[in-house]
Every structure is written in C-alpha cells, then in structure tokens.
Amino acid sequence: MSDLETQEAFAPGTAPGEGIAFEILGDAEFPTADMSLSIGPAHPATHGVFRIVLEVSGERIKSATPVIGYMHRGFEKLAEHRDFRQIKALVNRHDWLSGFSNELGVALAVEKMLEMEVPDRAQWIRMLMAEWNRILNHLMFVGSYALELGAITPMFYAFREREDIQHLMESATGGRLHFTYNQVGGLKVDLPKGFMRQSHGLSKLLRSRLPDYKDLVLGNEIFQARTKGIGPLPADVGLSIGVSGPTLQATGVAEDSRVTEPYLKYGEIDVHVPVGENGDSFDRFYCLLHRIEASLDIIDQIHDHMPAGPVNQKLPKMVKAPEGATYVRTENPLGQLGYWLESDGGRTPWRLKMRTPSFSNVQAIPYLMQDTLFPDAISILGSVFFVVGDIDR
Amino acid sequence: MAATSLPGTGLLKGLGVTIKHLFREPSTQMYPHERPDLAPRTRGVIALMDENCTVCMLCSRECPDWCIYIESHKETVPPAKEGGRARTRNVLDRFAIDFSLCMYCGICVEVCPFDALWWSPEFEYAEYSIDGLLHEMGRLREWMDTVPPPPQLDEGAELPAEVADAIGKVEQERELAAAKEAEAQQAAEAPAEGGGEKAAAGAAPKQAEIHVEAGQIDQETYDALIAEGKSERMARAKAKAAWVKKEKARLRAEQEAERGGAGGGDAAEQPAAAAGDAGDGDAADTGEAADAGAAPAKRRLSDVEVEGDGEIDQETYDALIAEGKSERIARSKAKAAWVKKKKQEQLDQEEGG
Amino acid sequence: MMESASVTAEVIVAQAVSIFDVGDGFVLPVLIKLVFVLALFFVLPLVGGYLEHKAMGRMQARRGPVEAGPFGSLQLVADGIKFIQKEDLIPRAADKWVFAIAPGVALVPAMLIFLVLPFGPGVFALDLELGLFYALAASSVSVLGVLMGGWASANKFSLIAGLRAGAQLIAYELPLILAAIAVAVQAGTLSLVGIVEAQANFLIPGTEINLWFVFPQILGFGIFFVAALAELSRPPFDMPIGDSELVFGYMTEYTGIKYAMYMLTEYAGMISMSALTVVLYLGGWQLLPGVPLPGCEAGGGLFDCSPVGVISGVLITIGKIMALVFVMVWFRVAFPRLREDQLQRISWLVLIPLSLLNLAVITVAKVVF
C-alpha cells in the first residue's frame, strides 16, 4: 500500500467524482487534498448572489475569498444620468432593506449643497421613518440569521412584525420596500391622519414581543454554542477594515453617526448605542437585537417631540445642485452609508460615489473565516450583516 | 439573560415561546379569500384621468424607466368669441404605461401638474403574457374607478393651500356676519336688507340651475364623433349632452347680459383655476400655468407669430459649436434662438407702440 | 447448554399471535400482513407529516396548509402527485446506478421496521423473538442510503452531508442501543410484544403499583429519544440536511419521486422511532399504567381482547406516537441546529457515559430485586 501515484483510471469528463485526485499512501500518513468549496452565487446562506470560495480540509476552512459583483447594476453610473428626483427612486434599491435611509442620504447631500433649511417637522418625520426602517431591516436579519443557524421560527415572527411596520409605513409613503418618500427640502406629503397613534401602538406592541426573540434565539443554549467565540473581530482590525454598524459596535466601539456626528435632529434626543465585548457572532447579533430596542426608544422620543408645521418647501421646477462637492454620512441600519456628491451645476450629479456599509463589512469575511469550521462560516456569514445589492451596487 | 441560569433553561424558554403561539390566532391573511386592507396611498397601479391630461409630457420625460408612451395630435379650436383667435390644443391619442418596466417610484404621479395620474391600491393585474402588462388608455381609465380619496392629514400637518384659503374666507365671512349682526342689533328697527341683496347678487347662476329640455342634438358634435368612428348610439348621446351644455351656456350668457353684471362669469372661473393649480403642494411645477392665470393681459412670446425661414442666430450657433455640440444640434438650437429673438423684438415693438 | 435451550423454547412459546393469522393457510395471512404493513407505512407518515405541517404552522403564527382537502389534510397527497410528475434529473457526473438506488436503500429498511412494530393487542405483522434487535438493525441501514446518495450525487455539499450522516450514525447508534439494552434487561425479552407485556406486569418492588419503563428509566428514555432524533437527522441534529449550509445535503441533486422517497423515509423514520419509544418506554397500547383495556383479559388486560379493546388499543398507540411526533416537531420549531463536532461531543462525552451508567444501574437493580 505504498505506491505513491495518482490514479487516473477514468477518462476525464465521464468519471464519477471527476476532478478528485486520489492518492493512496501508507498507513503512517494519510494526507488529503484540500477541497475548494464554492458557497454561492446561489446559496441560501448568502441571501442573494454573493459568492465565497472556501478552501476546506474536511470541514476546516483554510481560506475564504469573497467574490463580489454578481449583482453589479452600475448605480453610480446610472445616477449620473438621473436628476435628483429620479436618483431617489434609484438609491432606495441598492440596499433594498433600508430604502428610506438610502434616499435620506441623497436628500441630505443635495440639501447640504443647496444650503437649504429643511422644515423641522420634516426632519422629525424623517427620523421617525428612518428608525422604523431600521427596525424593519434588523427584524429581517434577526429572522434570517436564526434561519441560517437552523431555527426556522424567528423568521416567521419577524415577518409578522415586519408586516405591521410595512403596513404603517405604507400608509404614509405608499411603498412597502421602496418608499420614495423623501424629496429635496423635505418630504413628499405629510403623514396621514392617525399615523402617530398607530406608530405609538406599534412601538408598544413590538416592545411586548421583543422578549420572545430573546427567549427563542438569544437565550437559547444551542444558539449560544453556535455563536459565542465564533469569528471574533478585534476592534482595531474592525476599524482598519472599515466595518461599521452592528459589526463594529459588537467589537466594543460605540461608533454611530447618530451620536458622533448627529444629523437631522438626533442631537436633541438620547440615542443609545448597544455595544458588545468580543466582536464575535453572538455579540454582533446581540447588538442587532438591542438596536431594535434602542430604535424603539428613539421612536418614543420622536412621538413626544413631533412639531406641527410644513413638511416641504417650494422647489424650483428643476432642482440643480450648485457646482461643488460634498460628503454626507448617515447611520444606515447596516452601518455607515456615505454619499460623495459632486455636481457641475447641472440637473444630474457629475459623480455620486457610494460608501455602502455592506461592502465594507464583507471585507472582514476572509479574516473572520480563517481556520474555522464550515458551519461556523455560515454563522459568521450571517452575522456580518449585509445585503448583496449593497455590496455590488 | 442571566449568565448563571441552569443549563437547558434557554431551551425550555424557546419551547415555551413556540407552544404559546400554538394557542394564538395565526397572523396569516387568507389572501384570496380575504382582501388585504391597503392604505389609500398604496402604490398599486397608476390610473389615468384622461380628461385632465394636456399632453405636457412631463410624466413621460421624468419617468426613470421611460415606460410611459404618449401620442397626440394638435387640433385647432375655433375662436370662442367672435373675432377671437383660433387656438391649438393637444388631443391625447394614446397614453400607455408599460407595467413590466414600471418601477413604481411614483414620479409621474408626483410631477403631473393637472392631476391626470393617480395611484390606486389595486394590484391584481398579473398576466400570463408580458404584453398584457402594457395598459392602454382605456384600461388606465378604468383604474380611475378604484382610486380612493386621499387620506386626511395628520393633526400636526400644515393645511393644504386651498383649504387654508377656504378656512380664511369662512372666518372672514363669519367676522363680517358678526359685525353685521352687531350693527343690526344696534339698529333693531331697520331690517338688514343689504345682506339679502348681496347674497342674491353674489350667487352667479350655475349651469345646473338652468333647466334645459333635452331632445335635440348638436349636429357638429355628432358629425365629429361619427367621423372619429364612434358608434351612432354613443355619438347621439354625446351630441345630445353637448347640445344641452351649449343651450345652458347660451341661456346663462343671456341671463348675465340681462343682469348687466358681465364680470360674474369670469369671477367664478378664476378661483376655480386657482384652486386647481394649488393642488398638493406641487405649485412650483405649475408655475407656467399660474403665470398665465396671474397676468392674462400681458402677451407672451408664444402669442406672437414669427415666420422663420431657416435663419439662424449666428451668435448662438458659434457658442454651441465652441462648446463642442454637434452641428445639427447647434443649428436647430440657433434657429430656435433666432425665432425667439424675433418674437421678443416684435413684442417689444408692440408694447412700445 | 440445556438450560439456555429451554429458555429459548420458553420465549418462543411465549410469543403472541397476530390477529392477522387467520385460517390455516400460509398465503392469506401473509397477504393480509403485507397489506397491513404497507398501509401503515404509507398512511402514518402522511398523518405525521400533516401533524408537522399544522403544528409547525400554528407555532409559527401561521396556518399551515388550508387549501388541499378539508383543513389542508390532503396537502401531502397533492405534494406526492406533484413529485411523481416532476422530471427525474440525474447529474451527468453522478454515479448513476448508486444514485438511482440510494433512495430505495434508505426507504426499504424504514418500511421493514413496520413489520415488527406492535400497534395494539395482536395488531402486528410479526412478533419476532429478536424484535428489538431487528428494529434497531433495520433502522441503521437507512443511513447507508443517505451515504450512497451523498457520494453518488457528485456534489461537494452532498458528499459532506453523506459523511456527516455516517459520522452521526456511528456516534448515536451506540447510545441508542445501550439505552434499548437497558429496557431489554429490565423486560427480560427482546420481543417488542414481550416488552409491552413486561411493562404491564412491572410493579415497583415491594408494592402493587404498576409502572411503565419510562419512570425507572427516565434517563434511558431521554437518551433514546435524543439519539433517535439524531439518527433521523431531525432538528436540532439535522446537519446532514442543513438547508442553510449544505443546501439540503444529500438530497441536493435529487428531484421528483426520488426526493419524495427520501422525504417519506424521514417521516416513516419519525413514526417508527416514535413507535419504538412508545413500545419500549411508554407502555405500548396501555392507556395508563395499571389500567386494563376494555374487554381484554390476559396479560394484565392487554391480550385476548374484544374488537373494542383492539380498536382502542390501536388508537392509544397511534395517539402516543403522534404525541412523540409532535415533540419532534416542537423541537424543530424551537431550536437552531448544532454543529457536527458539538453533536459528536454530546454523544461521546455525555450520552454514551450516561447510557452506560443507566445500563449498569438497571442491571444491578434487576439482579438485586
């Protein structure tokens, strides 16, 4: 049994198990070939067309290489040929779970260039909507992350909650996913009657349902066994890679644009930023779940603050940003979203560069997946919260 | 979660949460059996009120997907008054939205200055063939029946301009009435006749109040409709309606002439136009229309006829070529610039003279 | 030698007679038994599947199937018809023969277990002397089908799944068998009918109180049930399927009727393992410990029954089976999936030592009392 030769008995293309090279060795050692395992582009754990090429030995991962771009739609180029009203309908599609926050970023950028004063009421409503959108997004990930670890039920509960929130937002914006509610200088139209009451009731209802998620997912021993100590990300590595949002907060860095660089009226209310300790999968999920609670707190404060007044202002027929450039960053549900807007004074931007949170977050994947087990790769992949459209744009 | 809890409590809690839901009412909506309760603002399908469409093409141009197809032709409308000028008007021939391309952003509805496009929450128009998603004018018009009234606004919302105006007016009237009442009380013996008179004078007779016996048909309308290929029955019905309308208009004009208050009709029309313009905070988009309404006396460039015969404005042409535009574009733009210049000159002359 | 031979003879004599043994012929009883086994095999998994659909739906705040048949009860039948209609795809790189027979290899042993499962007084096809041994042996053959399917699919995910299933089988066969042995020791027989009878006759030493084996062997019951879950690849031990990591594992490349055969194997496995648990620990067709069935005389009110007794016995057994199936569904709804190495650790470091302890305690107790 010591003949060290590669068997090539089968003709390539026809043999069963083609492409696997056999090496028969002595009893003393039994080296095996590494297998390259391609997760995606169509794999349930990547929720989208994202691909990671794993080099595995057995179930142990030697290296992980994310392959992106399957869903590149050329947003930045498209934006150069759209006026600002049309861009709003465009950008709420790159991170389709945070439509409102995306369009908010563009609106803020244009307003900043125009040095436009947005009515107070519009700013508060924008915050309210942004926070509901944040919860909408986080609930999706609470459900999908549990699903990736094999728990099916939280997904259904999360979608029940999402349905309620979508119904609420639909009553004001008309959309369930792509809201297109912002416009330069404010909002398209004011809230419908009874919205505040419903919003208040929903925030109460959600608060009463949050313990279910903690019992069902966060407190579950199997869940903890699958996530604690898996894929720890040190704070300095996280910062150097450029991760943001729950992924960064899990490392213990309380970086959140709403606190560190308040936009809208976030400076006037208390924003709690939950942070983790170890930066592992468990902490990332912990931050995500507690950000829902923090957002509910913000929503309650907004309910108390909501002023009366106009929500938009008269715009010229064609909004044109003055010549120049600006950068606006907002705390999107998944992390920091930045828009670099450069204008030559025309009706369309000369350049719109997006700094999307998902793109930066997935950069941490090769680091996190090194020397873990294959199921842990799924646990890590799910906990570095990303939306594929937001990576590929 | 207590760190010191017994092993297995987390599992038991999970079992508890799930069993709790076993005895709760499911949150499923039994969709085909039960209709979903959709908000009035829901973006389901776009409805077209074709009467309101002026073929301004704003929607078609603003559409990010270019999925709105509009075809129209110009028609010359004979002068309304003796000695007036004939006007041209756009007639909508085709208005189609390709819902297989539409991304439901709502920009077309947002920009429409004349409220011709509306959102309806209806969503059940899936088709087995993608061609079926191209909704033509008739289909878009049918959706109009499903458009719900817009919801009332939140308590903190600013009132829409026309509502605020109306409330202001009512308040003014109330104040006036209160003042009158006070006056009347002071002079108790003399009944306030002025009020009654004013009311009678203010109420310009509306078309509906004038009764016209139907029966005749308006031959002109009838012929036009038949020529368009409408059925005889429909043409007859419409022509009848047209006759009644005309008769009413005639009668009213007579009444007004008798009364001598010639301004009444115009006055009634103007506020209506103003209310139409101020719809939904889109006033900015309707700037042109508002301008026209505000200064009817001033002649505009478009009212001046200039015969252009291929002349171009050399200055514009050179500038455009220098900018690197193609010759074709530069030429056409320069031509337009020339016409504009000429018009302006003519207008200045007229005003000066 | 003589002694052991006589013991065997006694056991054989003690074997119960099936109610299907009608007449003196050979063919007729065999035909009836075949029909009985096949009917059970095709009906009970559907009932279990329906229970899973509905219970899972309600626990997840939804309704489960509602359209096919009354309350959606024919959903699985409709699914079956759909599976038959589907195109049968075999990947080009697959090992065609192995790929084709693998679902059958998984399905047939699952069917064979039904041969020995007692569902009521006399309601069983066969009462083998080595019934327990036979059932456990047959149940572990199914994994071979999984392994074959995983290998033959020529898919890396399927291969990992097949190997996981194999490792899982090896790890959990041991605690499963050790727990079952403890029952056999206490009952003094390997015949499944005999074990039910032994439970009806088991009294707490020194008292007149009748108990099922679940009470003295609560530890063994737990081990057996957990090991059965793992052997069936039911959540939280469904790593060989792992829909979110292995994309349905060994079933990835299967379509149509072959896929349906794997699914049927899974549901039949749930039924047969639950039935084994009922027989070993939960007193078979007894309603409550020490309560004889109506119209039954012999064996503590478990045998020689009137038709009423037979029917109530069958209903009680199926009720208990469905209760256990419900628990399996409940686990599936509530728990995430473990990792393969954690599963192995649980087996080798927790379950096997505990089952050995259980066996030792039971054996000592059996000798002492």
Describe the structure.
The complex is a heterotrimer of chains A (393), B (353) and C (369). Chain A is built from 15 helices and eight strands. Chain A has 393 residues and is α+β, with helices and mostly antiparallel strands. In chain A, the strands form three sheets. In chain A, strands 1-2-3 form a three-stranded antiparallel sheet. Chain A has a three-stranded antiparallel sheet with strand order 6-7-8. The N terminus of chain A is likely disordered. Chain B is mostly helical and 353 residues long. Helices cover 65% and strands 0% of the residues of chain C. Chain C has twelve helices and no strands. Classes of the chains: A alpha+beta (393), B mainly alpha (353), C mainly alpha (369). Chains in contact: A-B, A-C, B-C. Chains A and C meet through helix 4, helix 5, helix 7 and helix 14 of A and helix 6, helix 11 and helix 12 of C.
In short:
Chain B is mainly alpha-helical. Chain B has helices at 9-22, 58-62, 107-111, 137-143, 161-186, 193-202, 219-228, 232-259, 263-277, 287-294, 314-323, 327-352, and strands spanning 45-48, 68-77, 87-98, 117-120, 134-135. The longest helix of chain B is centred in the C-terminal third of the chain and has 28 residues, at 232-259.
β-sheet strand percentage of chain C: under 5%
Shape type of chain B: extended
Mean pLDDT of chain C: 82
Largest sheet of chain C: none
General shape of chain C: globular
Taking Cα atoms only, what radius of gyration of chain C do you get, to the nearest Å?
21 Å
